[in-house]
Automatic annotation (TrEMBL):
Location of this chain's protein in the cell: Membrane
Record protein name field: Cation diffusion facilitator family transporter
Main subcellular location: membrane
Organism name: Paracoccus mangrovi
Family (UniProt): Belongs to the cation diffusion facilitator (CDF) transporter (TC 2.A.4) family.
Domain called Cation efflux protein transmembrane: residue spans: 11-202
Keyword Transmembrane belongs to the record: yes
Swiss-Prot/TrEMBL keywords: Membrane, Transmembrane, Transmembrane helix, Transport
PANTHER family hit by this protein: MITOCHONDRIAL METAL TRANSPORTER 1-RELATED
Residue ranges of domain Cation efflux protein cytoplasmic in the record: 207-284
Sequence intervals crossing the membrane: 7-29, 41-59, 75-93, 113-131, 152-171
Length: 295
């Protein structure tokens, strides 16, 4: 089992524990706001399972039907997660509306709030693990799961504070009002997850800083060539695809041109881990005098 798979499996276990704690808090209090928090945890568990499946598919080697690999499977998982988040938010809004019509005071609020607060702390710790390790492992599924948990942590904190205010002030209507606010926060989180995942499915280029590093690496390691042009990049999960045309002197031998390409590839793979590079060698009359000029 890879490091990414271990973290994804850990997300399922943490999600189940948090779901149990939040469901117990809801059962103790009867709070609609705490119920909304528990419903979001159901989504957490479901999406953690989807993320693990996607990560395992993405780890499969390239085959005849998928010669570029299965890396985009993680983006599909993130889109599914975003859709499920939005569905959960709509269900919470429905329950909040019913509670608005008949607000009631809560049972055993202190015990419920303490249990829910502990679940929130547990989620916060795991959220940090998912985002930090997900970025290090270049896993969109883990990062998306981490950002979803971050929204859960924020909304959980708001719920605990709001329910405490409802108990102190005696304003029972605060409970469904908080549930509605949680739902809106979840909707925004779901939209951001979907938007970021769709960009990956649409073969979005690398960010400007990474592109600048790629251009500099090519220029510094292409001694013997003239220029590189038509540089293109895209990312798919942990993979970054880089392709460009490399112009060399027309008298350069095939062996010499191949050596230049090997040197550039090694440098790019060190600069951009997980990159796959395609270089098209051209003679000097194909030069465009643009793109990456070799130092």
């Amino acid at each position: 089992m890879t490091g990414t798979e271990k973290i994804a499996t850990g997300s399922i276990l943490i999600g189940l524990i948090v779901l149990g704690l939040k469901t117990f808090a809801w059962w103790l209090t009867g709070s609609v706001a705490l119920m909304s928090d528990a419903m979001e945890s159901i989504v957490n568990v479901a999406t953690a399972i989807a993320a693990l499946i996607a990560i395992r598919i993405a780890a499969r080697p390239a085959d005849r039907d998928h010669p570029y690999g299965h890396h985009k499977a993680e983006f599909f998982s993130a889109v599914l997660e975003g859709v499920m988040i939005i569905v959960a938010a709509l269900l919470i809004l429905r329950e909040a509306w019913h509670a608005f019509q008949a607000p009631r005071m809560l049972d055993a609020p202190l015990a419920g709030l303490l249990i829910n607060g502990f679940a929130g702390v547990l989620n916060a710790g795991w959220c940090w693990v998912l985002i930090s390790r997900g970025r290090r492992l270049r896993s969109p599924a883990l990062v998306a799961d981490g950002h979803h948990l971050l929204s859960d942590v924020i909304s959980s904190g708001g719920v605990v504070l709001g329910v405490a205010l409802a108990v102190v002030t005696g304003w029972a209507v605060l409970d469904p009002a908080l549930a509605a606010l949680v739902a809106v926060n979840i909707l925004w989180s779901g939209w951001k997850v979907i938007a970021s995942s769709v960009s990956g499915l649409m073969d979005e280029a690398v960010d400007n800083d990474t592109l600048a590093d790629i251009r500099t690496t090519i220029s510094d390691n292409a001694t013997g060539a003239i220029e590189a042009h038509d540089l293109r990049t895209r990312h798919a999960g942990a993979r970054t695809f880089i392709d460009f045309h490399l112009v060399v002197d027309g008298q350069t031998t095939v062996d010499a041109a191949h050596d230049i390409c090997d040197r550039i590839e090694q440098a790019l793979k060190a600069q951009v881990p997980g990159s796959m590079i395609t270089i098209h060698v051209e003679p000097e009359h194909k030069a465009k005098h643009s793109g990456v000029l070799v130092i």
